[in-house]
Amino acid sequence: QMSEGIGTRRNFAVETSNYVSLKLPWGDFIRYGVDVTYSRVQNKTFSNNRFDYLQTAMAPDNRNQYDSEPRHGYVYQIRANYDFRLGISNWGITMAYQYRQEYKAETALRHRLDRLTGWQAGVRSLGDLPSTRDSMLLAFDLNNSYRRREWQKQHEIGPALVYTKDEKGDYSYFSFGFPFSYKTDRMHYQRNLMDTCIVRKSRLFQPIVAWWLSTRDSKYFHHIILQRTIAIPDLVQMINLKDDVNPLAVQLGNPNLQNTINNNFSMHFEIKQPQRQQNLFFDISGTLTEHAIANGFVYNAQTGGYTFRPENVEGNYSLQGGWGFGRAIGKSKYWSWETSMRYNYVRNVDLTAVAGSAESTKSKVNNHVLNEKLKLQYQRDKLRINLQGTFTWRNANSIRRNFNTINACDYTYGTTVNY
User: Fold this and answer.
1) How many Cβ atoms from other residues are within 10 Å of residue 139's Cβ?
2) What is the torsional sign of CA 120, 122, 127, 130?
3) What pLDDT is stored for residue 356 in this prediction?
4) Which phi and psi angles does 123 have, rounded to 5°?
5) Under a CB-based contact definition with an 8 Å cutoff, are residues 369 and 348 in contact?
6) What is the pTM of this model?
7) What mean pLDDT comes out for the span 64-83?
8) 40: which strand partners?
9) CA 385 from chain center: how many Å?
10) Fewest CB atoms less than 10 Å from the CB: which of 67, 168, 257, 389?
11) Any long-range contacts for 377-380 (C-beta under 8 Å, 24+ apart)?
12) Do 158 and 179 form a contact (C-beta atoms < 8 A)?
């Protein structure tokens, strides 16, 4: 495939936010906010594309294409919450409500100018257009042009139990929130002979638990967060459509896609001793993903093209962790050193090609990254000298047939002087 193209893009956007917080005489809080955004985009592209089918006797496919893609939309959001204390204790309850509405209008007007006599790719200058409306109608690519209008309305109620304590700068915080959302998506989609309206209603529960602790002298800082988030597939992905603007990468829809769920956790513990200029930290985090979306495909050996279709896969998760320590040396504290180590593990489940197969198969790859840093520093007045080095080990392995295991190491070292 060979391509050349030019294009223009015009953007216009405006947004405003307003937020009000009011403390009541008895200690409760009322908060209210409004956010509004409007945007408009106009894309115009001209391209010459040549597709060669080297494995068959098919003639090269030369395309002179012009696309106009205007779109606009708005988002407005209203949120309010009431925080009230439970007696004289440090416990309280937050009642929050949020309404969000979004509208998106998108039109893709695609034209195959090469269908007109004398307008084959390479004959005319890139960026030229026919002067008559009839010619533009003859070049109109009906199969791949579309019009999309989408409305989203979401109500969210988010009660939370909250504990806060602030004693002369020593701060502790705990919250357990269980927001519930009711979301309605409605889309009107027109493409060739397809003229469909889709309505999807979703009920989402995304709880979160958080704990924070910090001291006024920053000697201690700890936090733990547990959270569940849900991502809803784009409605266009769930339509039975066929997009072959690029004949070597045809895209299909899948009406059976499920929501993607991410279960996240993170912990961070840090201790500082300013008098010794000493710092110690440890953190760990991870994510377990359910119903991740991957692109499955079928390969056409005659044309060399692929037909892609989104599908849900299971088994994706990740784990990251690290620790670090540093402190000054000696009574003068001109010298100091620090070290840190981080480990990152990702289990990636995807759909990929296997030699000899025309369809994608599930691929499970284990990715490991280990990184170690060491630094020695001398600082006196304006003089600063750093000696530092890093070492990184990377490994990727899989039981998949014909997978090439990656096992590599990198290291760097150097010095810097500032005065």
Assistant:
1) 20
2) negative
3) 54
4) -85, -45
5) no
6) 0.81
7) 94
8) 12, 72
9) 39
10) 168
11) 377/335, 377/336, 377/337, 377/338, 378/334, 378/335, 379/334, 379/336, 380/334
12) yes
* Token representation of residue 256: 């059976």
Q: pLDDT class for 359, splitting at 50, 70, 90? A: low
Query: How do residues 211-224 score in pLDDT, each as one tens digit?
Result: 999 887 778 889 99
Find the angle CA(118)-CA(122)-CA(128) to the nearest 5 degrees: 70
Between CA 389 and CA 415 the distance in angstroms is 9
Taking CB atoms within 8 Å and a gap of at least 24, the contacts of 57-61 are 58/302, 58/303, 61/247
**CA dihedral sign, ordered 272, 273, 277, 280:** negative
CA-to-CA distance for 396 and 341, rounded, in angstroms?
19
Q: What is the 3-state secondary structure (H, E, C) of the chain?
A: CEEEEEEEEEEEEEEEEEEEEEECCCCCEEEEEEEEEEEEEEEEEEEEEEECCCCCCCCCEEEEEEEEEEEEEEEEEEEEEEEEECCCCCEEEEEEEEEEEEEEEEEEEEEEHHHCCCCCCCCCCCCCCCCCHHHHHHHECCCCCEEEEEEEEEEEECCEEEEEEEECCEEEEEEEECCEEEEEEEEEEEECCEEEEEEEEEEEECCEEEEEEECCCCCEEEEEEEEEEEECCCHHHHCCCEECCCCCEEEECCCCCCCEEEEEEEEEEEEEEHHHCEEEEEEEEEEEEECEEEEEEEEECCCCEEEEEEEEECCEEEEEEEEEEEEEECCCCCEEEEEEEEEEEEEEEEEECCCCCCECEEEEEEEEEEEEEEEEEEEECCEEEEEEEEEEEEEEECCCCCCCCEEEEEEEEEEEEEC
List 336's β-bridge partners, or say none.
328, 377
Q: Tell me: the pLDDT tens digits for 368-395?
A: 999 999 999 998 888 999 999 999 999 9
Compute φ and ψ for 76, nearest 5 degrees: -135, 145
CB 227 within 8 A of CB 264: yes
Task: Give the pairing of strands 249-252 and 305-313.
Answer: parallel
Rounded distance between C-alpha atoms, residue 417 and residue 383, angstroms: 7
Count of CB atoms situated within 10 Å of the CB of 199: 10
Q: How many CB atoms lie within 10 A of CB 251?
A: 19
Whole-number Cα distances in Å, 163 to 26, 69, 159, 180, 226: 18, 50, 13, 21, 16
